[in-house]
Amino acid sequence: MDQLLKSFTKVYISKDAVTSDAARRFFDLIPHEKIAIVSERPYPEVQGSLSASEYDRSKRELFLTHYQGQFFKKCPGFKPGLVCCNYFVLNLGLQCNMNCSYCYLQSYLNTPVTTIYSNINDALSQLELIAQKFSAESYRVGTGETVDSLSLDELTLYSRHLISFFNRYPKWELELKTKSKSVDQFLDVDHVGNTVISWSINPEHIISREEHGTASLSERFSAAQKCLNKNFKVNFHIDPLIWHPEWQDNYFELVDQITRRFSPQDIPHISLGALRFQPEQRHIMRERFGMKSYVTRAEVHLSSDGKLRYDLRLRNEMFTAIINRFKSQNSAWNVIMCMETPETWLAHQGINPRSNESMNPLFRPLKGEQKVSHHTHNPS
Amino acid sequence: MDFCLISQCTKHLEFTKFRKWPKKLPAIAWKKHLLCAFDRQEQQAEGQVVTFEDDLPELLKSIYPELSLTELALLFKKAGDLFSEVTKTDVLKTYGLKANQDLNSVLEILPRTPNEFQDFVHHKKLAARELSPLRAVFNLAEIKDLLISIALSTLSKSQAVSLLEMAIELYLVDRSLTKLLKNDNESSHTWLARISALRMPLTKKSDQDFALKTSALNWPSHVKAEWIRSGDQSGLQISLFATSQADFKKKLLGINKINDELTMTPEKLWTNS
What we know:
The complex is a heterodimer of chains A (about 375) and B (about 270).
Chain A: H1 2-6, E1 10-14, H2 21-29, E2 35-38, H3 52-60, E3 61-65, E4 72-74, E5 88-90, E6 93-94, E7 99-100, E8 114-117, H4 120-133, E9 140-142, H5 153-156, H6 158-167, E10 173-178, E11 195-201, H7 204-210, E12 211-212, H8 217-229, E13 233-241, H9 247-261, E14 270-274, E15 276-277, H10 281-289, E16 301-302, E17 308-309, H11 312-329, E18 335-337, H12 342-348, H13 360-363, H14 369-372
Parallel strand pairs in A: 1-2, 1-3, 3-8, 5-9, 9-10, 10-11, 11-13, 13-14, 14-18
Antiparallel strand pairs in A: 4-5, 6-8, 7-12, 15-17, 16-17
Chain B: E1 2-5, E2 27-30, E3 33-34, E4 48-52, H1 56-63, H2 69-79, H3 85-94, H4 101-109, H5 115-123, H6 144-152, H7 157-174, H8 188-199, H9 201-216, E5 223-230, E6 233-240, H10 245-264
Parallel strand pairs in B: 2-4
Antiparallel strand pairs in B: 1-4, 2-3, 5-6
């Protein structure tokens, strides 16, 4: 927590958020000389994407504010040209206090300050409207699209509200996706088994080079074990796969570490995704991370969905090698690909998941989705 | 609006050498800073100037319906503190550009590039995003020769933009231009291919290997088989020329033979060596 608080040089709280639970907690935890009460946004939104220096600053300053918009949107993977395990995302803020070289927020954000929405209750009210209407459906909701679900959670404690809310809708599933080790703040919350804590993971070599300010692999595994001990579901996303000369050894070692510490019953799904980013993102990455990064040096090409990706053969080679490694240890490991093109699925699995019955629970279209999806932002 | 003589105006804003102002028209100034007809002498008969006091963006747009990035960059450089940030933003907006830090960086960088490169940006009508790689270079002087070579090359606009980005990325790896500059005996297109191979070594090797395998197969005459890249995929492209149904059938049989061969031994083409 100390490290988290030190990472912010300035904290702004908007007047309309001052009486919120989150603000009260901020006042308790953050040195008051860092806090400013403001009646307007501390910085105007930028036209277009943030510059490298604006983006760097946005990670050092925090803005707690009341959000008046729609908290929900459809998963960015749900669009023509892409195959994704579609679900809903609940956005409770913008920007992340960690600093991954490949982060797509670099080409998405135009808000020059890390933002947390203070009105979690409004988000839950919006959720309630949908939940009451579709309580019998098996909706999946994630919070890790525009923020890390848990890296700021020690400050906000939003996970506690969310887990308690989802207790009332046992058919729904909440996914908290993170690269942090912050789980202690919700482990005592009663739950009905419908909360999944997901970790994006990579070999330690990649974490240390590309995922700056995140928890180490062993810290993520330890946090995952704590969650399992409290009967939370745990998933791993090996995403993004990043090619480097020793990729096979390092990813095999990662698979071996997973299979040594966990069983297929512990981790119901492991998803794989290969490096991809919007073409314009390469410029800010180059400025912020130079050309020593595996990501900026990557040999990427324009894909059918408009993103830059590794050569399809290379992606398939990486997917195949990693899946085979899992299966060689235990055929029960359930490894799927996310954020991939239909070509990859067809080349690798010989199926399109949207037309495959066995994958329906993960990939079937959501009923009534058009009635609850109103967001205009799309980061993918 | 007011009238004055050229001798009463400054040429502080002389920002373009690419456009000649018609001799029959009076020069135009903003707050007695000439915006055009910079080549006129004060003693010349057409030394009359119409000078305006406000709305610079609209005035500029009236004089120059289009301005290149080079011209805008030089205008802002020459203006210095004469233009407020609001004025600069309004000028950019008038020319369809969104003012932000990235654009400002490019506009600040451009006047520091060699003249040849500035001219190239003007003539090829490059956009700010196409010059984004320059933002990552701390010391522009170090890549001066590279920029001149690109400007003087015979590459198309998109090829030149691609080469600029790849070469700057390679330069940033070790801050050296040794292998990146165009050789004297090298054509612009060979230079581009060489830089591309340096930036994408795995892709180039893979594509070359597949191309070799493709050419090693026994294709019928008048069947053109190529291994080509299309974005993140590469694959076999076949075209054939047939003069009759019998000829067409013959070509297809020849292709089918290769299909049979590849079915038995797919590694002859379909897998990486």
